[in-house]
Amino acid sequence: MRPALEPGDRLLVDTRVLRARLPRIGEIVVLRDPIAPTRWLIKRVGAVDAARATVEVRGDAADRARDSRQFGPVPIAAIVGVAYRRYAPSTRRAEL
Q1: The CA-based dihedral angle spanning residues 84, 78, 6, 72, taken in that order and rounded to the nearest 10 degrees
Q2: Disulfide: which of 23, 29, 46, 66 matches 56 by Cβ 3.0-4.6 Å?
Q3: pLDDT one-digit tens code per residue, 5-62
Q4: Total structural domains in the chain?
Q5: Phi/psi zone of residue 26: left (φ > 0), alpha (ψ -120 to 50 degrees), beta?
Q6: CA angle at residue 78 from 72 to 83, to 5 degrees?
């Protein structure tokens, strides 16, 4: 699978949407890195466990991605927001 995002892409992220609902499978989210909490990761939601309030996230480039396969499910509270639009570079503007 070709990654939806490339280095240099800039995203608009809704930081309020998850106050009203759970993340949806397939959405691109920004989350705190479970291993280095001062860093943020951009991943796709692969599964949601509402009972445990956890999310499994995956990278689009499975062979190179550091995701839930390495660090396990992520608490929903660790998600900063949901990406909804790529605004730069101008040649790659698009809804996500």
Answers
A1: -130
A2: 46
A3: 998 999 999 999 999 999 999 999 999 999 999 999 999 999 999 999 999 999 998 8
A4: 1
A5: left
A6: 105
Q: How far apart are CA 58 and CA 77, in angstroms?
A: 17
Task: Report d(CA 28, CA 48) in Å as an integer.
Answer: 13
Helix boundaries (H) for the chain: 68-71
User: What 3-state DSSP class applies to 57?
Assistant: strand
Overall pTM > 0.70: yes
Strands 94-95 and 79-88, bridge-based pairing: antiparallel
Instruction: Single out the residue of 48, 56, 64, 50 nearest to residue 5, CA to CA.
Output: 64
Residue 15 token pair: 């930081």
Strand partners, 55: 48, 74
Residue 4 lies in a domain: no
Residue 5 domain-assigned (yes or no): no
